[in-house]
Design brief:
With 127 residues, this protein is mainly alpha-helical. The chain is 74% helix and 0% strand. Helix 2 runs antiparallel to helix 4. The longest helix has 45 residues, at 25-69.
Length: 127
């Protein structure tokens, strides 16, 4: 049975006319490979950014959970005023976990900015 199928396929392929490849075949194929490589690089880049954001958020969450678990007392802006610093009177009272949220958000923004600046640097200088 398998031999019959092989014979049928051989005869079918032998009847097909031999076609020449187009002159631009190699160029077209290289262009397709280049586009596919760019897509793979873009996916890898997006994954790196998502992993960076996820790691940052998890570290911030762990820090906040630690402070909540340890029941660290709140520190208000009144505590800062006891040292006679020049803090405006409308300075809001911010608890420690809220301040860490703010700092964590700033860390994520700075990490993302660093990532973007490195991408620009590598495009200009290669690497």
């Amino acid at each position: 049975m398998k031999q019959d199928e092989n014979d049928i396929l051989k005869t079918m392929f032998s009847r097909m006319p031999e076609e020449k490849l187009s002159p631009a075949f190699q160029t077209d194929m290289m262009e397709r490979i280049r586009k596919e490589a760019l897509l793979v690089a873009k996916r890898r880049q997006i994954l790196q950014v998502l992993l960076l954001i996820g790691a940052s958020i998890s570290m911030i969450g762990l820090a906040i959970a630690t402070f909540v678990y340890l029941k660290i007392p709140q520190m208000s802006s009144e505590w800062f005023r006891t040292y006679d610093w020049q803090i405006p009177r409308n300075f809001p009272n911010i608890s420690i976990p809220h301040s860490y949220l703010i700092f964590g958000f700033l860390v994520v923004i700075l990490l993302f900015a660093d990532y973007l600046f490195r991408q620009v640097y590598y495009k200009r200088h290669g690497g």
